[in-house]
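Predict structure. Chain length: 181.
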Amino acid sequence: MTSSPPPPPGPDHSDAPAPDPGPAPLPQGWENPAVRADRRLVELLQELRVLQTGVQIVFAFLLGVAFTPRFAELSDAQQDIYVTTLLLTVVAAAVLATPVALHRGLYRHPGKARIVHVSARIAQYGLLLLACALTGAVLLVLDVVLGTAAAVAITAVIALIFATLWFVLPWALRRAARDRP
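Prediction complete.
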């Protein structure tokens, strides 16, 4: 015959209330507005870091072009494309860096949700400017390499690709999600 082990020494806790488990866990995916705004801002700033690299590469390419011996051989129209593309790239860099400046300038500001909303809108304008700058760079290079007719045709396709992927597709997905029951 086996016996059960003796009870541990000390007072009997059979009538004691169960320890408080703390607050109930939040449902998965729940965020309060402040946490959501912080997360969204971090995500946006990370996305902008990626874009800034692309802008810097295009800008460096464009700066180098002006100092090549062949630059003097560009037609007036090609030089106009170059100057326009260079300026679009600089403005795109400034616009895409604006959310970072807002974040720094309004650090610990209570209206973070508003900062995120404004920054997201500014980022959209920055994407538009970047798409124009990249399209201009493609037009310039293709005009020099292939001639004006081919350059315009190919660049139009490139512009359509940017418009579709960067603007139409997100709009369509947002609309489909909103219309879903």
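Summary: The chain has a mean pLDDT of 84.
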